[in-house]
Amino acid sequence: MPKQGMSATFTVKLKPIHGLANQGGFRYQQWLISQRIVATGYVKSASLTTAHPVVSQRQIWLSHLYSLPLKHNAWIAALTFGDKSHFSTQQWNLIQTNGIAHLVAISGLHLGVVALLTLLIGRCLLWLVSRTMALSQAYNYRSLMLAMVVGVTWYYAYLAGFSLPTVRAWLMLLLLSVLILLQRVVNPAHFVLLSLGGFLLVQPMSVLSLSFWLSFGAITAIGFILWRWPSHNHNALSKQTQISAIVTPVLIAVKAMCILQLMLSLLMLPLVASQFAFISFHSPIVNLIAIPIVTFCLVPLCLLAALIMLIDRSAAGVVFEWIDWLLESCLNALPDSQNSALASVQLPGIPVIVWAWSLAAIVLWCMPISLRKKLCSSLLVLPLLSYALVSQNSKWQLHVLDVGQGSAYVLETQGKAIVYDVGNRFPSGFNMADAVLLPFLQHQGLEHIDWLIISHFDSDHAGSLANVLQGIKVIHFASNQDICRRGWQLNWQALHIEALWPPAESEGRGNDNSCVLRISDGQHAVLLTGDISGDVEKRLVKTDRKLLKADVLIAAHHGSNTSSSQDFIDAVKPQFAVFSQGFLNRWDFPRQPVVTRFVMSDVTLYSTASSGQISFVFDPERKQIETDRFRQNMLPTWYNRYLWH
After folding, report:
1. Do the domain assignments include residue 114?
2. How far apart are CA 272 and CA 260, in angstroms?
3. Pick from 204, 238, 243, 264: most CB atoms within 10 A?
């Protein structure tokens, strides 16, 4: 595996940044821009040489940590050095479902612990010096303490790899230190705005990063909570409990922590749910227990082990073993709450504006206003509750998903779905089921697939089949190797589906034996063609010309010149044709002669490479077809078109 210090020579093929664009999917192109990445590509050839003697201290410590026989190296590396590259998919799922991602990302919490420990150690050293010798009053020792805190936290940010959350937290600490030195009093709201402006000057593209909004959202929420429920007025608590002065501050601190954590979870819920389409009901309780453990136990122990590594690695290994044992005890408690049926819920895709209205309702309920006004503010939650209802209109939709060089289509109506093809799976493990299809189905609120149909078993059409079957319930299955043959018919949700190809005697192998389906509501029709060639198109024109008429045609074989013959286009007479193809693919699909044939036939052309997901909405009552394209209509932001043309 390549490591820091190695020399490498690569021959690469680069292209402008581009990502799959689908509802519910990860916005890769947005993330690339937020990380200031301007090109992507793949390695054609590479050569590595031996490690260079100049290796960073962080890499030396990481290599030593991963060489230790610990069960939870990945967790320790994340807590100590901010390295999250060794987390498995199961571990990431555990982190997400329990809402503890902020605990394993070195940010304000960890940097604050380091700053506090540095300040305490500095003051202790200063006190010891003052006990042995007279200190000059000509120096401002507070400035010395602040400089020490800023320097130590900067080095800790370096060990954490200068990740965006770490840099953001360090800049805020630096700003606070400067304000203290200048003896400037700034209220919390102004401090947050100054931090926000300063960070945007340093990292302007970070505004596209989700961590940016989560961080400043959490800071704003904490400020609101401390304003609404100040923790300094506790005379009533002391009188009611009448306990010792030692226990009372502990109860006050516990009460304040509970209020802070529960209200923070409630105020952050709309932002988290809008981004992850997921609500964890036990997350506030998990964080209420985990935050003190991480803050007062794990992080200090990790820092202690890192410092000891400078002196004695074997002694540091002993401390890491303590940390490993403590992590084992903590992690064993998480799956119980995760596996509970009531612990969490997946949500369909809900517009951000709906979550914004819900957040406004939560804030108004927290405000010191009359009960009547609070009850009126509850009306703002009605748009959110409406998404629990299933649409009963007669419209149906065909979603052409953007899966790169491959195919995946979803037929949807009244909360039911048919999936035709599932996209590719790659040797790295990346697959279109987990990246595109399953997130899209969740976004649409679809809990199962009525029919899963595979046109043929080439990898770009069926590579992710196993992942789909594992990720969602499939009631019925069909393919070109079983029932999806010429003459097979299916009446589903007021739609008539008929297989036009392959013949019954076919072996069901190869492109020319793809399952060709015609889907119709009596007014409109769609033709799904798989990867058939011009020879099959010619036979279909000869035997089933009347059945080929369709409003929407999925161009065969992604726009290859061996398909989409002129006679076939004339027989189908489509209003729209779609090319499901990869961005700047190596086969140069769709080929220019194919595009020319469609243009000459006055057909409107769409491509998933340029538009992302393409959705056709059919309305039999109004006899009209609406089209929605992800980059142009669903999310027409500038970064979705950045460097495309």
Report:
1. yes
2. 17
3. 264
